[in-house]
Amino acid sequence: MRILKHSFLSLLRKPTKAVMILVILFVVFSMVFTGVIIQNSIAKSKEFVRLELGAVVEYKADYMKAYKDNLSEDEFAQMDLSKATADNISNDNRVEKVYINYSDYVESSEYEAVTKESSGGMVQMSVGFGGTAYFDLKATDGIEPIEFDTKRVEIIDGRNIESADDTSDENTIVISEEFANKNNLAIDDDMTFKSYAFNKELDFRVVGIYKVNDSKITGNEMYISSKVFKTDGAEMISSIYFKLNDPLEVDGFINDQSVNLPSKYTVLDAGNSEYNKLTKPLDLMSMIASILIWVIFIAGAAIIISLITIFVRDRKFEVGLLLASGEARYKIIAQFVLEIIIVAILAFGCSVLLSHQSSQLVSEWIVENQLVEKEDGSDELFIYDGMTNVNGDVKMENVAKDFSVAITFDVMKNLFIISIGIVIIASLIPLAIILSYNPRQALQD
Amino acid sequence: MKDIIFELDNISYGYIDGGKKRNILNELSYEFERGKFYTILGPSGSGKTTLLAIASALDAPEKGYVLFEGKDIKKIGHTKFRRNNMAIIFQKYNLTDYLTGVENVESNMMIVDKKIPGNNKDIAYKILNSMGIVQSKADRRVTKLSGGEQQRVAVARALSKDVPLILGDEPTGALDTATSKEVIALFKKLVKEYNKTIILVTHSDDVAANSDISLRLKNGKLEEVKWD
């Protein structure tokens, strides 16, 4: 009771030093909070980028590295993707599905390819010399191709390729709506293409027609059964995708499973270069915020310790008087610490209010001047590779939208614990020194 | 048979001065009776204040024992002894400057272990009133009171604990003659009516002459003074 009463009376009646501590704590807390909030927001935005990039990891050959290392033709052959490796990696419980894909470029002078205008106004052509058109035959082992799974394309007529097609004598094919319209094709029509890989004519019967939902898919992609690619005991795997249960597990999965790859020229990739490009400005800001936090934190703690030392030293006589009256040392410590905590709580409350406002301003500035501006100035921040990014485009514009700053209860709780911790430690040091004196010494000054 | 409340037993204390050890208390022993008013005289530097600091457990002797009601105060615990068994009044009032007179008195009552019956604030006003500090003055911050008034508050603060032993280090040293006389009269009343034991360190022969027993600190030992 005495502790509580005297704490309040001391603060109310001798407020000068308490106000000084309040101001310093307020400034230090506000700056640290703003930094922490920005860092949290950056972490959230990075998570957002990872979520947008999706939970698909591609097992692929690293041709750039191979060219750089000047590999021989024999060594290039060792870069073929291994189904055994894929099966081994798929045992990881983070893996939801494995897509083992096959593809082949085929040509035909009978059919007209779909032409599409890209976002830059360029016309995407699949037509070669002499009226020959080129098409992309695709197949996936056992399950629906990933484009169907992720709704980038969807069946609108007929059916998709099924496991029964793998054992059927007839070759089946699923074509795009645009291609079908352009070439007057319908379900049950027959088609013929010339394969480069097999160097022969391949006959198909149309069993399904799909609609394109993603601008990156031209409509010249045809889906067939994987049995076509498994002739003469050869397997021509073009790509392997692992779809994970959670996009946020991607980094851990790549770290853990990279050691199981048979060659250093094969890699696990989850749009890493795109992720890095998108998160590079965020990392830079995070680093600056981190340095800022530590500098303010250390300088602030030093100032707070000095101020509290003065605050407590100034009351050495009062400590002596209380000791002479028989007050327990722990109660004297409790009174002084309580006074500092009251001031710290006030400063904390003001800082939370201010940092909420200031961090919103800072984040708006970051979004307007650092993130969106960079997107305008550099095309590199767009993802053009639709192979790995099966969920569609990730633009900095979307990342910026997610760059929100809200003080969550958890953040506030952690900041409160840290702040009060510093203040208690800062007040205990000078108090411990003063209380180590005997009461006579304390009263003599 | 003597009723001994407080005893200094073979107390020695010294300090290093210019590289040499100087003993200011030298195997000092004395027994203080309950319900008596003692004064300790001695010239400056004779060790009066040190003796009082040791007696009030504000400092520890190099050698010897301080006994309260036959128990070593080390065993009682210095802090507990100061809290529950004695009160001390200093020359310079020694009050908490951000509290009012009544709050200073009340705060001392909150420190003691035993619950003082009744409302602490009312008791504090009553004690202050008996010291000539009316309520309007008792409610002022002590820094707004005169030196004499502050010393009265300090005495009231000591009395509020209702302990059997009161020690004072020149408690009238900063007071004018009239106030000093009032305070001494109050001490005498406390001894006579409430059976308190009061030990004051003083350099004033007038104060000493008013006590039951005067002692002089000489060569590190206490000897009784006979007044003619």
Overall number of domains of chain B:
1
- Please, how many domains of chain A? 2
Strand order of the largest sheet of chain A: 2-5-10-7-9-8
Helix content of chain B: 25-40%
Number of strands of chain B: 10
The first-to-last residue Cα distance of chain A is 28 Å
Q: How many E-type strands of chain A?
A: 12
Largest interface, C-beta closer than 8 angstroms, per-chain residues: A-B, 21 and 27 residues
The CATH fourth-level homologous superfamily of chain B: P-loop containing nucleotide triphosphate hydrolases
Please describe the topology of this protein.
The complex is a heterodimer of chains A (445) and B (228).
Chain A: H1 2-13, H2 15-53, E1 56-61, H3 63-68, H4 73-77, H5 83-89, E2 95-108, E3 116-117, E4 123-124, E5 133-140, H6 146-149, E6 153-158, H7 164-167, E7 172-176, H8 177-182, E8 190-195, E9 200-212, E10 221-224, E11 237-244, H9 250-257, E12 266-269, H10 272-313, H11 316-324, H12 329-377, H13 396-402, H14 409-436, H15 439-444
Parallel strand pairs in A: 5-10, 7-9
Antiparallel strand pairs in A: 1-11, 1-12, 2-5, 2-8, 2-11, 3-4, 6-9, 7-10, 8-9
Helix pairs in contact in A: 1-12, 2-10, 2-12, 10-12, 10-14, 12-13, 12-14
Chain B: E1 4-17, E2 20-33, E3 37-41, H1 48-55, E4 63-68, E5 71-72, H2 73-76, H3 78-84, E6 86-89, H4 101-111, H5 120-130, H6 135-138, H7 147-160, E7 165-169, H8 177-194, E8 197-201, H9 205-209, E9 213-218, E10 221-225
Parallel strand pairs in B: 3-8, 3-9, 6-7, 7-8
Antiparallel strand pairs in B: 1-2, 1-4, 4-5, 9-10
Please sum up the structure shown:
The complex is a heterodimer of chains A (445) and B (228). Chain A is an alpha+beta fold.
Describe the structure.
The complex is a heterodimer of chains A (445) and B (228). By secondary structure, chain A is of the alpha+beta class. Chain A has two domains: 2-54 and 276-444, no CATH class; 56-270, no CATH class. Chain A contains 15 helices and twelve strands. In chain A, a hairpin with a 5-residue loop joins strand 3 and strand 4 (123-124). The longest helix of chain A is centred in the C-terminal third of the chain and has 49 residues, at 329-377. Mean pLDDT of chain A is 79; it is low at 119-123 and 373-388. A six-stranded mixed beta sheet of chain B has the order 6-7-8-3-9-10, sandwiched between helices. Chain B has a four-stranded antiparallel beta sheet with strand order 2-1-4-5. In chain B, strand 4 and strand 5 form a beta hairpin. With 228 residues, chain B is α/β, with parallel strands linked by helices. The two termini of chain B are 27 Å apart. Chain B has a single domain (4-225), classed as P-loop containing nucleotide triphosphate hydrolases (Rossmann fold), CATH 3.40.50. Chain B has nine helices and ten strands. The chains are: A alpha+beta (445), B alpha/beta (228). At the A-B interface, helix 1, helix 11 and helix 15 of A face helix 3 and helix 4 of B.
